[in-house]
Structures are given as structure tokens and as C-alpha cells.
Design goal:
It contains 18 helices and 22 strands. With about 625 residues, it is an alpha+beta fold. Among the domains are: about 140 residues, Neutral Protease, domain 2, CATH 1.10.390; about 140 residues, Serine Threonine Protein Phosphatase 5, Tetratricopeptide repeat. A hairpin with a 4-residue loop joins strand 19 and strand 20. Helix 5 crosses helix 6 and helix 15 packs parallel to helix 17.
């Protein structure tokens, strides 16, 4: 039996007391979340007890999800599902409950459950199906050690519903416990309290006592080991990677101390990192207590660990105070980039932070130009309008870098000391709550701008297109020196005679981004022969170099390009490379050929983006991932 899902969508957020009120009293307020079927103003889950078995051979998760529910006498509760097989639903005492699945849309299928006699709990028995978008099942050959299979989940933005029936909105926060059974030779870890040693029977238990939104519930299963990096920090990875990772991330404890000195105590007890196989689609994911990270940041020289600072900053902006809907995504990422930059400045110095800022600005300029020429130029606004679309489409550099630039402008206007005090109070007063753009702007005006007698063109920044005219343009003395060397090379100085001995990754990236637009084989060979770009183990530098190799048809790098695209699933690298190949007929043929054998190695997050970019479904039959 089916029912028609009505457009009655909402997400739970919290209304702070008046911004004039320094107390902590709160009242609940609800905002529409167009990406969830939940109706939390009627009935909302507050706690999840998960009891699941992970079948690595069948590539299936099955078990039960039991929920504590808070309702206002509601007779129904709505959960989000996508591709799940619902086997049974009962009340908390085990009595059968009436339920039905709604019609299928790009959001999945809503699960409607009757709450008999004001029941405050239900239990759902379910299993995942092949193609669950949050899950990536990796064969042994796709892992670092090549011995055992691996599984990881990726819930952002609306993918947790593909492996747990849940109210999958960032404005709904829950606590959870979990019991996870895996093959005894593997270890399970989650975004919760974690084991540091393997159990004998493959059964692991977890607790997350701080309330979090569904997209931050995460699981990884593999042949993992743990290394401590400090009193509150450590790293999980496969055996061949764990010591390299522990060395690479040695500054993590220092970063955590720097973050706390800026914006208040860390509220999640431990901060650990897990290094996943290279198919992970993001640089990192800020799952609380356990950041999921790509191995592409392990360069052997600690040069790419700003990503750890970014994910750590999410422990305040994103995890502690969360965007209420995905239209408010910039409240997660803009704040986090600002916070990341401040952590990097404290740990690595002002030069490092300035270079990082300038590279981000370059990314913003390129992204705004591309989006402005596309189908949705409104995506250059900070406050998005994503109803009817996959919210993943709004997760661009605009939220990150334009959001950071807006906060950097506020800092410049009011002074760093006042802005730091404002942010510290913002995180403290709104801890474990959700935030809308409108409420943040009201809070900003009441708590900072009006008392400081500062006026800003907020409408242009938040609801206007492109890059506002009053943006603070970053500068870097070290990049000025890079530009001087780039000019020397462009004017005939051989690459071997350039002064590059003390350059960091940031400087090399700026150099590569500044290369002339008309390089030939001789020029490319001069650079490659001198600096070894095609052979580099630094994935940021390699990806930037390979873009030039495609543009200038530098065939000597094509074997490395093929290998890179086949093994690395980080969307940040994949999209620019495949997009660049689309610019020529030869490139389009090469892209289709590489994608045909690389696609099964990618997570669904990357596949969805690349299928559209390459018009894959128009040209080729789908390949299971």
C-alpha cells in the first residue's frame, strides 16, 4: 500500500532567546527543509539505538534501528529512506506497527509509521540494497594493503537515508548508540566513542552522547590500526599507512590547542582521524570525534595538513552549530575556512595563512566565473535556494571562500579582538543547535555590528551574485617572489636556474596556476625534467600539473594521468581534470576511455557529478559502482 507524499516538509531548528538576552533560555522554532520528509513539529526522533551486521561479502548492512521519539500527541512519524528494504516496524514494546512507504523521488521514499496510543518509540528492521549511495564497498585490491575488503560511509548531504532509515535533515539532532558486527579480522569505527584495539569476535559498541544531525553518523570497516598522536588525538589507517599518517598529522594536538585558545573548549572529548582508501570523494569529512580523510593529503612533508585544520574547525562550525538546511550551507563552510585560516596562522605563521587565503581566492574567482555562465548563476549567492535539486549541487567554493571573505571583511571592520569575542560567544550560546542564515544575520547585527556602529552591504554579500566589490583582496610577499621567478622563466631563463629551493606546496601551486597559456612541448619538458611534476607524490601539485598536460597535449604525462584518475576518487581533483579533457575532441575520447575503467572505483558522490559532466548515461550503459 502506498501513499502520496505531500509537500509538507520541515526541519527542527532552535530559536534563541532575544539577542538582547544574555541568558540561555530557548524555544523551538521550525523551518522548512525541502530535502527531508520529516515533520518534526509533529514527531521527532531524539535518540537512535543501532544494531547492525556488516556483510562484506554480500555488500549489505542489515539489522534494526530503534528510536526514542518526542511528539505532541502525533499519530504519525515520518522518516527518510532511499533504496532501503524495510522488513518490519514495531513499537518500542515489540508490537507490530502500521507503516507504509511513499512514492519514490530524487529524495528517496518517505517511511510513514503510525504511533499507537502516543507511543514514544519505534523499531525498524531493515537492510541496505546494492547501490546504496552512502556506502562504498572496496575489494582488497582497492585498498592500501591489498589484503582485506573495506567499507566506508559518506552521509553528506542527504545520503545517510540510504543506509539508515532516519530523519535526514541537518536541523534535527539526535544522540546514538550502536552495536556493529563485522568479520573478526576487521575493525569497525564510527563517529562516536571508538575502540583503539581490535575485538576477538568482531563486535563493536559505540556511544555518541552529544546530539548530532544524521549526515554526521558515519561508519568505516577495514583492516585498521591505531596510533596515538597526543592526549586527545590519534589516527586510524591500514597497516602500511598508519605510521606515515601519524607522522604527517603530528601537529594535530597543537592545532586542537590553538583552536581552543581561539573559540572555546573542544566539546567532543577526542579528535581522531581515519585515513580512508583513495576512492573517498572528499578531502575530508568532519564526522565528530573521527574525521574521515583522503590519503591524498599524505605528501611526506606535512605540507597538506591544512585540511586537518579545516575538519577540526568543523568541530565548532558545522558540528557544534549546524546549518539548519542545505540552503544555509555557507554557515558551515564559510566559518570553517575562516577558522581554519586562523588555526594555520597560529600553528604555521602568517605567511602560510596569507598564501592559503590567496589560493582560496583564486579558486573563488574561477568558480564564480564558471557558475555565472551556467544554468544556475544564483548559486553564486551565499544563501542558496536548492529546493527541487540535489543539495550536493550547492556545495561549491562559493560557500567556502565567499563565506570566508565575508567573515574576513567583518573582522577587518570591527577588529580582530571584537570579532574573536563575537565568534567565541556565538559558538557557546548556540552549541548543539542549528542556525538559519536569517537568524545568524539578526544575531550578528544585534551582538556585533550595531554595538560597533559598523554598516555592511549584507544583502550584496548574502543574497547577491558574484564577488562583492568591497572584498578584501589577499596579498602574499612570498607569492610576489614566485611571480618574479615565473616572469624570469617566461622570458627565457631555464627552469634549472630559477630560485625555488625553499618553496612550499602553496608556492608551487601559485607557480603552476600562473603558467602562460601557450606552452609547447619544449617548455613543458623543461619544467617536468627540472622539477619532476609528473613523478611527484604531492597530489595537489600533480593534479594542477596534469591540467596543463591535458591543455597542452603533453603526452609524456598521460600514463600518469590515467593511473591518477583510476586510483584517486577525490572529486576536487577529478572534476577539473575531466572538465579539461572535455575541451577537445581528443580529450573527450580519452576521458570516456579512462572513465569507463575508473568509474567503478569512485564513490557515488563523484559518480553523480561526473556522469552529468561526461554525459555518461547518454553515451554508455551504466556501470555498477
Amino acid at each position: 500500500m502506498k501513499f502520496t507524499f505531500l509537500p509538507y516538509l520541515a526541519s527542527l531548528v532552535f530559536l534563541l532567546g532575544s539577542c538582547q538576552d544574555k541568558g540561555t533560555s530557548t524555544a523551538e522554532q521550525y523551518v522548512m527543509d525541502p530535502h527531508s520528509c520529516a515533520r518534526p513539529e509533529e514527531a521527532v526522533i531524539t535518540h537512535l539505538d543501532l544494531d547492525i551486521k556488516v556483510d562484506m561479502e554480500a555488500k549489505r548492512i542489515e539489522g534494526t534501528a530503534s528510536y526514542a521519539i518526542r511528539s505532541e500527541g502525533a499519530s504519525l512519524i515520518y522518516l527518510d529512506t532511499d533504496g532501503l528494504e524495510i522488513l518490519d516496524v514495531a513499537d518500542k514494546d515489540g508490537a507490530p506497527a502500521k507503516w507504509e512507504l511513499g512514492d519514490s523521488t530524487f529524495l528517496g521514499r518517505p517511511l510513514k509509521v503510525e504511533l499507537g496510543n502516543g507511543s514514544d518509540g519505534i523499531k525498524v528492521t531493515y537492510r541496505t540494497t546494492l547501490g546504496a549511495k552512502a556506502l562504498q564497498w572496496l575489494s582488497p585490491v582497492q585498498t592500501a594493503d591489498g589484503t582485506h575488503p573495506f567499507l566506508f560511509t559518506q552521509g553528506q548531504a542527504i545520503l545517510t537515508r540510504t543506509w539508515i532509515p532516519i530523519q535526514d535533515s541537518p536541523g534535527i539532532r539526535i544522540t546514538y548508540n550502536a552495536r556493529v558486527t563485522v568479520p573478526s579480522e576487521l575493525m569497525a569505527v564510527m563517529s562516536a566513542s571508538n575502540p583503539q584495539e581490535r575485538t576477538a569476535d568482531g563486535v563493536y559498541t559505540f556511544r555518541m552522547d552529544q546530539p548530532i544531525p544524521a549526515y554526521l553518523i558515519a561508519l568505516a570497516v577495514g583492516d585498521l590500526e591505531f596510533r596515538s598522536m597526543g592526549p586527545r588525538t590519534g589516527v586510524y589507517a591500514e597497516r602500511s599507512m598508519v605510521d606515515k599518517a601519524a607522522w604527517e598529522f603530528a601537529d594535530t594536538e597543537r592545532m586542537l590547542e590553538a583552536a581552543e585558545s581561539l573559540y572555546g573548549p573542544y566539546r567532543w572529548e577526542r579528535y581522531d582521524v581515519i585515513v580512508l582508501p583513495p576512492s573517498f570523494p572528499f578531502g575530508g569529512m568532519e564526522n565528530p570525534r573521527l574525521t574521515f580523510a583522503t590519503p591524498t593529503i599524505i605528501a611526506g612533508d606535512r605540507s597538506l595538513t591544512a585540511l586537518i585544520a579545516h575538519e577540526m574547525a568543523h568541530s565548532w562550525s558545522g558540528n557544534l552549530v549546524t546549518n539548519a538546511t542545505w540552503d544555509d550551507f555557507w554557515l558551515n563552510e564559510g566559518f570553517t575556512v575562516y577558522f581554519e585560516n586562523r588555526i594555520c596562522e597560529a600553528v604555521y605563521g602568517k605567511d602560510f595563512a596569507q598564501m592559503h587565503h590567496l589560493l582560496g581566492h583564486q579558486d573563488l574567482v574561477a568558480t564564480v566565473a564558471r557558475i555565472s555562465a551556467g544554468e544556475h548563476p544564483e548559486d553564486t549567492h551565499l544563501h542558496l535556494h536548492l529546493e527541487g535539486r540535489d543539495p550536493d549541487e550547492g556545495m561549491t567554493d562559493v560557500a567556502y571562500e565567499k563565506g570566508f571573505a565575508f567573515l574576513r571583511l567583518i573582522e577587518e571592520k570591527v577588529g580582530r579582538e571584537k570579532f574573536d569575542a563575537f565568534l567565541r560567544g556565538y559558538f557557546e550560546r548556540n552549541a548543539f543547535r542549528s542556525m538559519t542564515t536569517e537568524r545568524f544575520l539578526a544575531y550578528l547585527d544585534d551582538e556585533l555590528l550595531r554595538p560597533a556602529k559598523v554598516q555592511l552591504n549584507i544583502a550584496e554579500w548574502v543574497d547577491g551574485p558574484g564577488i562583492p566589490s568591497d572584498i578584501i583582496l589577499p596579498t602574499s610577499e612570498r607569492f610576489v617572489k614566485v611571480d618574479q621567478e615565473l616572469d624570469r622563466w617566461s622570458n627565457g631563463t631555464p627552469a634549472k636556474d630559477l630560485n625555488t629551493s625553499d618553496w612550499t606546496t602553496h608556492e608551487w601551486l601559485h607557480f603552476l596556476r600562473g603558467l602562460p597559456a601557450d606552452l609547447d612541448e619544449k617548455a613543458m619538458s623543461d619544467l617536468d625534467g627540472t622539477f619532476g611534476f609528473t613523478r611527484t607524490g604531492n597530489n595537489e601539485i600533480l593534479a594542477a600539473w596534469l591540467e596543463h598536460c591535458i591543455a597542452y597535449d603533453y603526452g609524456s604525462a598521460y600514463e600518469r594521468l590515467d593511473g591518477f584518475l583510476t586510483t584517486v576518487g577525490r572529486r576536487k581533483f577529478l572534476v577539473p581534470l575531466y572538465r579539461r579533457m572535455q575541451e577537445t575532441e581528443k580529450g573527450r575520447i580519452m576521458a570516456q576511455d579512462i572513465y569507463a575503467h575508473a568509474r567503478p572505483n569512485y564513490h557515488s558522490v563523484s559518480v553523480n557529478t561526473l556522469d552529468e559532466l561526461l554525459r555518461w548515461k547518454d553515451n554508455k550503459p551504466p556501470v555498477a559502482f
